[in-house]
Amino acid sequence: MQRFLEAALDLSEPQGPRVALLAIGVDGLGALANRHGPEVADAALLGIADRLRNGLRAHDLVGRLPEGFCICIPEALTAQARGTAERLQRLLETTPLETPQGPVALRCSLGLALGHGPGSSADKLMLRARAALAAAQEAGGSRIITDL
Predict the structure, then answer these.
(1) Of 15, 23, 53, 110, which residue has the fewest beta carbons closer than 10 angstroms?
(2) What is the mean pLDDT of the chain?
(3) CB-based contacts of 102, cutoff 8 Å, min separation 6
């Protein structure tokens, strides 16, 4: 993800579309694992990964974070990135995931950060997206916070 993000930033133009980075956290993932066992949490993560991959463009990249997932969306306008975040949140929360112990409803929080231009820091963009995710979860979860 780091190399992909750096390349996307280097290829973006300072006045053109931006590079969006979404950090996605599953609200209550630890409680889900404690209540139903690690196999249910693992099944939920695999199901989320499938839904994310099916909900994105072919050239967007999904990666794993300790708290969930991240998605690099190159060449995105701010409104497009926000729309993608909203669409993915609906995709994840609308239909329960099938697990070995039955369907599990999900709540997800998203942090969205945007950057552009050669020389921009992939590390800083990742930190901003993860900080926005943490703020979304601290605000009660199941929300999107954007750091422009």
Answers:
(1) 15
(2) 92
(3) none
